[in-house]
Amino acid sequence: MNIPRSSFPRIVIIGGGFAGISLAKKLKNKNVQVVLLDKHNYHTFQPLLYQVATGGLEAGSIAYPIRKVVQEYQDFYFRLANVKEIDTVHQKVLADIGDLHYDYLVIATGSKTNYFGNKDIENYSMAMKTIPQSLNIRSLILENFEQATLTNDIAERDALMNFVIVGGGPTGVELAGALAEMKKAILPKDYPDLDIRKMGIHLVQGSDRLLDAMSPKSSESAEKFLHSLGVSIWKNVRVTNYDGRTVTTGSDLTFETATVIWAAGVKGAAINGIQAEALIPRADRFKVNEYNQVLGYDNIFAVGDVASMISEKYPYGHPMMAQPAIQQGNLLAENLVKKIKNKPMKAFEYNDKGSMATIGRNKAVVDLPKMHFHGVFAWFVWMFVHLFSLIGFKNKAVVLMNWVYNYIKFDREGRLIIRPYKKKNIQSFTTDEI
Amino acid sequence: MNIPRSSFPRIVIIGGGFAGISLAKKLKNKNVQVVLLDKHNYHTFQPLLYQVATGGLEAGSIAYPIRKVVQEYQDFYFRLANVKEIDTVHQKVLADIGDLHYDYLVIATGSKTNYFGNKDIENYSMAMKTIPQSLNIRSLILENFEQATLTNDIAERDALMNFVIVGGGPTGVELAGALAEMKKAILPKDYPDLDIRKMGIHLVQGSDRLLDAMSPKSSESAEKFLHSLGVSIWKNVRVTNYDGRTVTTGSDLTFETATVIWAAGVKGAAINGIQAEALIPRADRFKVNEYNQVLGYDNIFAVGDVASMISEKYPYGHPMMAQPAIQQGNLLAENLVKKIKNKPMKAFEYNDKGSMATIGRNKAVVDLPKMHFHGVFAWFVWMFVHLFSLIGFKNKAVVLMNWVYNYIKFDREGRLIIRPYKKKNIQSFTTDEI
């Protein structure tokens, strides 16, 4: 890789998500050379992906060019790259665009969808971790309804209008709410020749409550809200397979559907080359100490979803969410500067600011460390926090304008099939057949 | 196709561009059944495609869901379809989604890029007629600069930073201006390790002036504006080939470049099944009479770019632009209603409202029927007319906000590679090789 040698030590950061970007920002002009690698040239504001998937926001409103973030930083390099492996012996990152020596390495690769080894589900269901994936979901939803207008086969049409969301965490809950709002306000007008009442929105949760990382009160409210929106909630149901047409579960329950959105689990996006002892199997997260140092290495760090910092309070590491990632990124910047100056580093302590989820129009649930609330006020809090967290004034302004417009007009104008989603080779749902 | 029979005569419109949409709007609740077919589910505001290509606007801001336009019209159907052929004997449209009987057929398929039979140019150059194509150009521009940071081969880097736009009409001129603004204000900040002064923007025109459909004064001003922005203008140059690396011309002049944008010609997007006598060869436009009836047919009409209505004033038909398309669409709605009632139709007369082009920041040229002006005022007129012409309040508001933001901040935040553009198999520019 074409990075000039500097008199400063070189920190290589892999990943421009919440952890990587907050780290990069704090390393601005700190007498270090920083090389930031990412496979996209933009930072994604993941909490709003579901609104891109359901046409409420354009992709550009929740993406921010990474080069714009770092463009005025000294001795700072961004490279668009897929990292293949770490060579810890020679202190090198091996990527598709070449090798790069590091003095300090920070792995901030985040997480990816966990299919728990099921290849069928991986092939036939939709994930919603990236902007292209969200746009694929948007295209598929709209393509389904377009196809439903074409068929006289009732079972086929029902399957096209049936949506199964697996996973009752914030992603599944928010997506189900947004789909339900589409069903109520938009689809009946757009498809007057379809009976939209027949559209099914099924939210399938393995455990006994939705949002099971939040308070029981939030779960209860979320279920009530979704129920009132017409979402079918299936608790204690474990999905066992999906062949592109039928979802099978641990019991006799099955769903006939053209669309499964898999939000049932994530795992760390670990990379190769780190010693096996440092990796938590299945979770694919790297064990880190209180300074985010990866087990067994002095100059390799991991932050965010891919890092698991085990403590008494968090025996499985911190939740895989934006907040721990941002806080770890911020502290690690300080600690790297300290370490370079041979000063002692500061131990990380997670400041849990709470969590929240929105469920359609006017409704949200918010858990703060000492209180819970839900309803309209929670919804305003949710909007304010998300708006405020977006990078860039223009994105904030455009998102706010879209929200106000969508709210007043009961509308989402992003129902555009810009890139058709090419379904895998499933006979019964190919357009050609109809 | 699954369209119920109605007691009203059925009008089938192929294409939801300027002509098709204005026709559809005027046919609202007119005691006819209307079926509108398009291969996209949105209407594209083509005059602003170049701003999507250069990251100034998001795709969603210049696209509008067709179903939203027609959602409250009675006995009105939209279908996402690729039309393959017309069976004029049985009065049927043959499409990928099935056949459809028509009582009246309106061909509003617009135009497509004309490569004048050159397959190499078609394969290796970029067109800018649709939103996906514009997004491809955006991705390619950014990918080129990302790749330029990776190579030490100077010829390679120069070719990656060299842009050749073929065709000096409004599309080429506006795109060249927008690229020049990127070169000035954005790229030097985003790519501090590249010498952006080396970026070349070449605008190649076959005739002896740019904007040769406009007034000589406008040509002159446009050339002056582009010149001051650092665009290299090549007049009287005919491009003969592009092999993915080298552009050859009618003379010794060649360009080494990774990117050719082909804006040198359009032709009608004619469809099969219409008798040969009605088609103008090479131009691929259908000959229509003053009522937009296709030569030799009583109930088949063509409007917009695909129609050529020859008159004394317009011996080659009307210019292939939005205005004639909109005006023809509007009048044809009236005429179809008249025809159904056996009343005489009204002859079309083109009301030339003038034409305009913008060239970067603060500059535009405007030709009105009786006057010409250019500069800042022309630029305001350009913006006002384009804003006003966009469908939908939200698109207008979002575009305005983006323009104000981009203007004040000298910025375009849409520099996002959402879908990487996969280059054709050109050895020297594949990422893997570097």
Description:
The structure is a homodimer of 434-residue chains. Mean pLDDT of chain A is 94; it is low at 430-434. The termini of chain A are far apart. In chain A, α1 (18-26) packs parallel to α10 (322-340) and α5 runs antiparallel to α6 (154-160). By secondary structure, chain A is an alpha/beta fold. In chain A, a hairpin with a 4-residue loop joins β6 (83-87) and β7 (92-95). Chain A has twelve helices and 25 strands. Helices cover 31% and strands 23% of the residues of chain A. In chain A, strands 5-2-1-9-21 form a five-stranded parallel beta sheet. In chain A, strands 13-12-11-17 form a four-stranded parallel beta sheet. Chain A has a three-stranded antiparallel beta sheet with strand order 6-7-8, with no helix packed on it. Chain A folds into two domains: 10-39 and 81-113 and 266-340, FAD/NAD(P)-binding domain; 119-264 and 361-433, FAD/NAD(P)-binding domain, CATH 3.50.50.100. The longest helix of chain A has 19 residues, at 322-340.
List keywords for this structure.
5-stranded parallel β-sheet, 434 residues, FAD/NAD(P)-binding domain, FAD (chains A, B), globular, alpha/beta, 2 domains, transit peptide (chains A, B)
What is this structure, in a nutshell?
2 copies of one chain form a homodimer. The first copy, chain A, has 434 residues and is α/β, with parallel strands linked by helices.
**Overall mean pLDDT of chain A:** 94
Q: Largest protein interface?
A: A-B, 59 and 59 residues
Oligomerization state of this entry?
homodimer
Low-confidence spans of chain A: 430-434
The shape of chain A, in one word, is: globular
CATH topology of the largest domain in chain A: FAD/NAD(P)-binding domain
| Residues in β-strands, percent of chain A | 15-25%
The helix fraction of chain A, in percent, is 25-40%
Number of strands of chain A: 25
Q: Cα-atom Rg of chain A, whole angstroms? A: 22 Å
The assigned CATH architecture of the largest domain in chain A is 3-Layer(bba) Sandwich
Biggest sheet record of chain A:
5 strands, parallel
Counted up, domains of chain A total 2
Order of strands, widest sheet of chain A? 5-2-1-9-21
Distance between the termini of chain A: 50 Å
Give the C-level CATH assignment of the largest domain in chain A.
Alpha Beta
Structural class category of chain A? alpha/beta
Please work out how many helical segments of chain A DSSP would assign.
Answer: 12
GO molecular function (chains A, B): NADH dehydrogenase (quinone) (non-electrogenic) activity
Domain External alternative NADH-ubiquinone oxidoreductase-like C-terminal (chains A, B): 353-408
Keywords (chains A, B): FAD, Flavoprotein, Membrane, NAD, Oxidoreductase, Transit peptide, Transmembrane, Transmembrane helix
Pfam families (chains A, B): NDH2_C, Pyr_redox_2
